[in-house]
Amino acid sequence: METGIAISFWILAAVMVASALAVVWLRDIFRAALFLVLCFFSVAGVFVILGADFLAAAQVLIYVGAIAVLIIFAIMLTRETQRGSPSGRFRFIAFLVGLLFLVTVTLVVVSTDWHAITEIPAEPTTSSLAQALFSGESGFVLPFEIAAVLLLAAIIGAIVLVRER
Amino acid sequence: MAVGLEHFLILSAVLFSIGLYGALAKRNAVVILMCIEIMLNAVNIAMVAFSRYGHLLTGQVFAIFIMVVAAAEVVVGLALVIAIYRSRETVDVERIDLMKW
Amino acid sequence: MGVLEQFQHWLLGYWPSWAAYLVPAIVAFLVLSSFILLVVMAFIYIERRGVGRFQVRLGPNRAGPLGILQPVADAIKVLVKEDIIPSRGDRRIHWLAPIIAFMPALAIFAVIPFGPRAIFTDINIGILYIIAISSLGVIGVFMAGWASGNKYSLVSALRTVAQLISYEIPLMLSIAGVLIISGSLSMVSIVEAQSIPFILLQPLGFLIFFVAATAELNRTPFDLLEAESEIVAGYHTEYSGMKFSLFYLAEYTHAFAISAIVATLFLSGWKGPFLPPALWLMIKVFLVFIVLFWARSTLPRLRVDQLMGFAWKGLFPLALLNLFITAAEAIIWPGFPWQLLILNLLIAALLIVLWSGLFRVAGERVSFHRYGRGIAKGMALTFRHLFRRPITVQYPEQRLTPAPRFRGNLLVWDEERCNGCRACARACPVSIIDIETKKGDKGLIVETLEIDFGRCLFCGLCVEACPVAALFMSRDYEQASYFRESLVVKKEQFIAAEKRPSAYAYPDLEAEMPPQTLLAPPKEKG
Amino acid sequence: MPEVALAIFLLPIFSFVVISLIIRPFLNKRPQLSWYVTIASIGASLILSLWMLVEVIKAPGHVLPMPDYQWLVIGDTSIHLGVMADSLAAVMLIVVTVVSLVVQIYSRGYMHGDPGYCRYFAFMSLFTGSMLGLVLADNLLFLFVFWELVGLCSYLLIGFWFHRPEAARAATKAFIVTRIGDFGFLAAILFLYAKTGTFDIGELQHLALVGAIGGTALTWAAIGIFSGAVGKSAQFPLHTWLPDAMEGPTPVSALIHAATMVAAGVFLVARLFPMIASSYEAIMTVAIIGGFTAIFAATMGMVMNDFKRILAYSTISQLGYMMLGLGVVGVGVARGAVALEVGLALGVAVGIFHLFNHAFFKALLFFGAGSASHATGTFDIREMGGLRKAMPWTFATFLIGSLSIVGIWPLAGFWGKEQILSQAWHYAPILFYLAMITVFMTAFYMFRLLFLAFGGEYRGGAHVSLRESPAVMIVPMVLLAILSVVSGWLPISEFLGGESHSFFGALASPMAWASLLLAALGILLAYAIYSKKWISAESMRRRFAPLYTIVSRKYWFDELYENVFVVRILVDGIFALFHWFDDHIVDGMVNGIAGGTIAAGREIRRLQTGQLQAYGLAIFIGILAIIAFFMIFG
Amino acid sequence: MLKTEPIMINFGPQHPSTHGVFRMRVTFDGEVIVDLEPIFGYLHRGIEKLCESKTYTQIIPYTDRLDYLASMSNNFAYVMAVEKLAGIEIPERAQYLRVIVAELQRIASHLIAVGGFLNDLGAFFTPFMYMFREREKILDLFEMVCGQRLTYNYMRIGGVSHDIPPEFLPALKRFVDEMPGYIDEYDQLLAENEIVLARSKGVGVLPADLAINASASGPVLRGSGVRWDIRRADPYSIYDRFEFEIPVGKMGDTYDRYWVRIQEMRQSVRIVRQAMAELPQGEVRAKVPATLRPPQGEVYARIESPRGELGFYLVGDDSPHPYRFKVRAPSLINLTLLRDLCIGWKLADAIAILGSIDIVLAEVDR
């Protein structure tokens, strides 16, 4: 079981990083969007490895089903006349900042010991997640409601913005 | 060798920095939004990794809320991009710079 | 614990762990996919025959006994066809699109329980997995629309995606209703929870799911995709050959998947009195599919904006209401006793009446104001037609005898009687008859007679004009040839032709002519 | 008895109220009513004063005990006001009421037909009321109120014909100059109140004598009070307003600028004499200023050509004499040459006695001037002449007045002046010599005026018909003439506590002879120059040209005050400074701040490039910096 | 602002949903039709010029090919015109036969029109197939009578070419008895079908005044509520003997036109039933000289064809060939309304409206 997880982790990680780079590197936006979908899929795969199956399904449903579609819609609606997505003036500085950020974070990660518990949590997460979300006192009911209101506001905002007068 | 918490954190860091580079370097607004999505996903991975290696479900709950916020953010972001495209016929971020002195 | 897991555990003992998991999985996958393909073939055949029968016609019966091999014939035809790749489009995405479109339909079967333990993998987020995967099809449609590079397929791809997305929401909400009752996401537990099939407990939920599912499949009232009257053939205009067949296959596999889901969610899956569970499932699946193409053959197509309006203003609110009602019932009667059945039916009827009252179509409130009775009557009529004898005949084998006076397409010339008077030539409106005569001993002898049947109107005026009844219309109607010249019939051919004159212009001949085969022969009594 | 005292000064004020609130607005068609009301009220006051005089004479020590009433209670301090009915007050009452009554009678003729008739008599009665109040007040604050009221009335009456710009300007000038003096007076009052906690004159005198108030403090208070007197009596530094005050109608000048108001200053010094005398420096300044003002004003009087201005300078000179009288006696007391009690009474007697006499003959002279201008239509003596024949009564009364002021023996002027001279001789010999020269000058300019106005031929425009003034003006002149002669003989000096002297004994002292000789010399010189013209005025003027120009330009004091003080120092100096300060410092600061922010804003906004990614970059660089910081410093 | 310029799409001659070779140049603004320009003429064969060189009898087959879905009424109108020009009286039996055949032809034509219209709404051929079944029965009858199923060439100047065979009447009787049942079936299938109503109710409304001004005729005119049927307004041949109503629509929208056609089928069955009952015996064809030479003059005869007022204008000049042969084609005139009806609607509606106007390109292009 261990080696299985390790192998699949490395594969998924490789795919994810490769697709992320593709999204950033490619000139043709539509292909970039497709690679983004691939990246979302590999993230869902990682969630499965981490035992968060409900989250994996939710990830596929929300990101691939909704957000990727939305992005593709946006690409279609704002059909770019000049080709694809050239990189702007801050290429080098941004690359530098990204690299620096990566180095610092890895340093931090490596240096602190996380005293992580390694054995695999067995039971499926759906019911326990629901418990966490909705149970009375310790639950996250209020944030849940606020998230709902946030979504409502976002939707109405978007409609008003995009509605043709 | 076995896959520890560090692996996931480093993976999410790599992903985050790629997204960061994209968001800061790219000129097309839609690609910027895509890169922001990648950054949010990176954070999600880290959250779920913490919940798995810390045996505490709050990580996943946070991941869900991050997803909600990400969705809302994309919706409004894209609405803005389309509205800008309609009025100024461009999504090149460098040419959308009216908010200056 | 599905059969597959048991097999894997058993195998663990012998092979290395990764092999023990991987090989059975692949084998099971192959078995499952081939089974699916077979069923899909059956679906295609049933649909074509069924629709034919609904339309009082025979339907394909040429290929193989009763036309069973028709889908195979189609497959072969499609495979043989040349596979066009549009130059302006994006080649790789064009190639990838059908696979992405086909993959989700196939992936759904991983969690469909064919029996209590006959399930590929019983993951506990079964139905959520299905919804997630089904929302993938959208990406495939986008890729197809985009990659084919032509304006119309892009616009229709956008329209189809809009339709898929707006119907995905009522689909999910109606499933939520079922989940509240079953209490778990896993498909197997849903089926076990169905002591009373959920179609009875959740009538409104079932209705919404079914209508949304037909929209997902792009069929009947919502088949805006290949609406001939609109943008040609939608996003797969540029596809041909193998890629088009993949799309076609994807559509039917998705139909099979949806009917399987309907069966498991609402018709209590494999449960049935005595037949083996898998058979029960397949029976229910076929039943659902029949209803699908039954609707397809009766209902006309909704316009794009009505379609969208129906989704957002019709199904979505109803699904929400259904969810609230089920939630309320879950709190008040946690055990879901069977009496709920009546209550739910009542509520469903009430809701449909109320909600359809809101609908208004240009002018007075017409559609649905009589809560869909019109559609039901239409469906009943087509159903009745199932039991009527098809009026089409197997042409080459069965031939219809034309009427005695039938004006066939070649003339019958009686050389003896003809006196070369050229009356027929004069009478012909398009003057295609040219006769040369030379003086013979007792009158004119027809030397050459050429009639250009390429331009003949078969009006029969020449026959009427012939004073000596030397010219007859013939009774056969199969004269066809590849070259125009061959249509010019010379004298010798007339003489040589096998004469089957018709009784046109000669009423007296009608008696001995064979009677006309009438579609509706007069009743014997008079 | 207290009601009588109050009534004396309330009656004229009541008449003012009646005139201004009832007659002026409603009965303006019959203005004479206001004259009758004024005459009635002042007449009543005169009778009551006389009755009070009799009471005071009978009262032991010439002081009537008077109750005081509570006026103001502010917090824990309460201010009581009452009336001092002593000999000094009684004498002053008599002077004021008599002269005022005579002036009102004279004014009826003078002001006949003037549109502001009621307004004139209202102000006159208000003035008389407040003058009487001033005299009777026993409380410094109460006195100061009447002091200001009197100043106000002088302003209103000088500027009576306010449509004439010179009158308006003269009124304001008078008001401001007296104000400067009053400022010192008020400061002194408050200073004294701060020191002693009371305003009552009696208590203050007692404390001053006992020495409760510190030496220098007392000196400063005394000088403050004296400055009020200098302002009001037009002494040396603040004298410029009186000659210009002649713009007002002549009866006003007669009453206010001859007899009463200007005398208020001398009365004040007399009233507070014990306190002032107890400080040597203060009394010395009084004496010096008095002596100097006398000779100073006299020199200017010699060169004036305007009838009333000559009389104005003569008034200043005579007031200088009174101050001198008070001053020298005070010096004697301060030096201890005289016993305290006797000295104090003597000083008051000397000063007030001359004031008493001066009031009558100066009013008379002004009446003469009034009737002369009434006839000739002008005040310029060079255009007069030969009025002797046309206006015999006016000439006669004027001659008596002149003789009296010059100090010829039996007349009133001689007695007062002689006492002052003898005291001056005793205590301040230098001032005595100045005084003697002033006697000569007084005689010279009075008779110059007499010969120029009444002697020789009429030099005015031909068309004016010279006629004697009407009876209503002549009768008061005759009355005053009589008083000018008789007032000297009254035992006022003894009544006030001074030395008594016999009628003929005075001639015995060589002092008297010297002054008489000098007076005769002055008259002879004037006779020579202006009547007989033996010496031509022109040649005299040429010979003493520089001296003449200095004096005729009134020592440039007016220019000094207007140009130097007002314009150069105040306007260009201090105010300019303020102006500069306001412009540059205060505004500077405000504008400076605004300008600074705008400049800063222009620079900083360059940071906002409008590029979203630039901002993103900045944020992340910041985050990296923070992380690095924590990494390094743990 | 980003101005979205309207796209112009060509619904070319070979588009599946246009009835024959007819092209529409449609300009869209988004979904809504802004302008529509019908282009026809692809099927122009110059029949009118051609017939000027033909004898009057030879012209009859050409009239079959004018409106090939209602050839009988074409013949009927032409033959009436010639008889009127030549002043020929035709026997009673021929009159009745002509009426029976014309009304059957009307039913057949309406069946095709309604079937096509529903197919355009996307009903996937099922109603189309049912209606074709009924049409086959009528074609069998015509085959019985004149030997052809489409181009009948049945009528002759002075009457009809043949008398009806003996088995014609029983078959006709069965058809006439069953037909109302089938029409009820169509109503059950379609009249209240919500989706049909949604697609056709209130779509492409043709106001009555516009219809009259555009001189529309037939079901298109009656759909807008104008009660104008030549059989009743200007009764030709023996139509005045039968009594039948003229169905009229209320709103003048696509649905009303469909409803009018269905009701007309019922009325035609009534007429055929009455004609069958009164069918007299006797001659079917008057004596007419072989080469007819109608006198000089002009004539205009019109009948109520399934698509509207079909008129023939003939100018005779004593010669066997007509000097001028002009056809007043109702489809062409109804087609001119297409543009006004479609503007403001969507593409799918335009197809439905075209179906409801029911044009036959052969008649339009001639």
Observed structural traits:
heteropentamer, C: 526 residues, mainly alpha, Alpha-Beta Plaits, 18 helices, 5 strands, E: alpha+beta, Cytochrome-c3 Hydrogenase, chain B, three-stranded antiparallel sheet, 15 helices, globular
Q: Summarize this, please?
A:
The complex is a heteropentamer of chains A (165), B (101), C (526), D (634) and E (366). By secondary structure, chain A is mainly alpha-helical. Chain A has 2 domains: 1-80, NADH-ubiquinone/plastoquinone oxidoreductase chain 6, subunit NuoJ (Four Helix Bundle (Hemerythrin (Met), subunit A)); 124-165.
Note down, in words, how this protein is organized:
The complex is a heteropentamer of chains A (165), B (101), C (526), D (634) and E (366). Chain A is 75% helix and 0% strand. By secondary structure, chain A is mostly helical. In chain A, helix 1 packs antiparallel against helix 2 (29-49) and helix 2 runs antiparallel to helix 3. Chain A is globular, with a radius of gyration of 20 Å. Chain C folds into 2 domains: 81-272 and 287-384, no CATH class; 412-512, Alpha-Beta Plaits (2-Layer Sandwich). In chain C, helix 10 runs antiparallel to helix 11 (241-266). In chain C, the strands form 2 sheets. Chain C has a 3-stranded antiparallel β-sheet. Chain E has 366 residues and is an alpha+beta fold. Chain E has helices at 47-51, 56-64, 71-86, 92-120, 126-146, 168-191, 194-200, 208-213, 219-223, 230-233, 254-277, 330-335, 338-342, 347-357, 361-365; strands at 7-11, 23-29, 32-39, 155-156, 159-160, 297-305, 308-316, 324-328. In chain E, the strands form 3 sheets. Chain E has a 3-stranded antiparallel β-sheet. Chain E has a 3-stranded antiparallel β-sheet with strand order 6-7-8. Chain E has a two-stranded antiparallel sheet with strand order 4-5. In chain E, helix 5 runs antiparallel to helix 6 and helix 6 packs antiparallel against helix 11 (254-277). The termini of chain E are far apart. Chains in contact: A-B, A-C, A-D, B-D, B-E, C-E.
Oligomeric state of this protein: heteropentamer
* Major sheet attributes of chain D: 2 strands, antiparallel
Radius of gyration of chain D, rounded? 31 Å
Decide which structural class fits the backbone of chain D. mainly alpha
| SSE ordering of chain E | EEEHHHHHEEHHHHHHEEEHHHH
Give the number of helices of chain E. 15
Globular, elongated, flat, extended or rod-shaped: what is the shape of chain E?
globular
Alpha-carbon distance between the termini of chain E?
A: 49 Å
What order do the strands of the largest sheet of chain E run in, or round the barrel if closed? 1-2-3
How do the strands line up in the largest sheet of chain D?
A: 1-4
Question: Can you give the helix content of chain D as a percent range?
Answer: over 70%
CATH class of chain E: Mainly Alpha
Envelope shape of chain D: globular
Structural class of chain E: alpha+beta
Helix-residue proportion of chain E: 40-55%
- What are the low-pLDDT stretches of chain D, counting only 5+ consecutive residues below 50? none
Kindly report the greatest chain-chain contact and the residue count on each side: A-B, 85 and 73 residues
Number of strands of chain E: 8
- CATH-defined topology of chain E: Cytochrome-c3 Hydrogenase, chain B
User: What is the correct CATH architecture of chain E?
Assistant: Orthogonal Bundle
